[in-house]
Amino acid sequence: MRIRTWTTAAALLAGVGLAGCAGEEQEPVTVGLITKQEENPYWVEMREVAQETADDLDAELLTATGESDTDAASQEAALDDMVEQGADGILLAPTDAEALDPAITRAREAGVLVIAVDTPTDPQDAVDATFATDNERAGQLIGQYAAAKAEELGLEPQIATLDLTPGVTTGEQRHAGFLAGFGIEEGDEAIVASVDTEGDRDNAAVVMTQVLADHPDVNVVYTVNEPAALGALAALEDADADMDEIVMVSVDGGCRTMREGVRPGLIDATASQYPQNMAREGVRAVVAAVRDGEAPSGYHDTGTELISDSPVDGVESRRVEFGVRTCWGS
Fold this sequence. Notes:
Elements: E1 2-6, H1 9-14, E2 30-35, H2 41-56, E3 60-65, H3 72-84, E4 89-92, H4 97-109, E5 113-117, E6 129-132, H5 135-153, E7 159-163, H6 169-182, E8 191-196, H7 201-214, E9 220-223, H8 226-238, E10 247-252, H9 255-262, E11 269-273, H10 275-292, E12 298-301, E13 304-307, H11 320-326
Parallel strand pairs: 2-3, 2-4, 4-5, 5-6, 6-12, 7-8, 7-9, 9-10, 10-11
Antiparallel strand pairs: 1-3, 11-13
């Protein structure tokens, strides 16, 4: 676990009488942000925007991150640590909601507002509020696209799904949404392989290599996120696969992948999501709860768009130009 703490200049000056609007001091607020890891630029972007928003609102930001998308132990320790440090509210992207439930409960019982970002908990009311992509809809969008694109190319679908890991709601919802959008159910004969990647590029490259060895006729590849897509692409390139005869779809909408993967058609379509929105609105919600007594509740959809430079009939999408302009935030 890596824990970083930044204190804004405004918070440092508060003790010597820095005045807020209308000559009054702002009530001090401490916000925590716990992400999954920093190998994926998605989480880096979320942290940076949370810091910018906290600075703008004269709030203090505590941050922590684990080593991977499955590192629940680090997140549990960070939750307890931030409660001890006096956090008023904590934004948490849970790696394993079930494993983290006791720590979340301890935080809420201590009077700390807990908001899930990116990854919903199950049940949803395990936290006070959720700011996240509608992951099932994101999966449906790329599933609809993949089905239509495969039909356009005259392919008999041989599908490989590169998933996250069991028990993580984002991965499960995207997978279920993809199948629904494609018009099939779990166990359909068109699905020749389903493998877990932990959302990691290197893991995805390894498992995709094995998938191709076992099923060289794979022609539709669903990836749970863009790091997994890039790993799958590396394996496909090593196998000299004909990408013109393979449909690859993903979820994220990262700026670099948008330019280097979606624009050249290596990734046919991606469902963008907006970590900037999650971070910005989550920090604002904690500050408003402390200063205005307006505590958030329920689920808040932070948006998604299907992005492709190879659109298909019957499936609404936006061009890569739009995706690059709005990557990570809208």
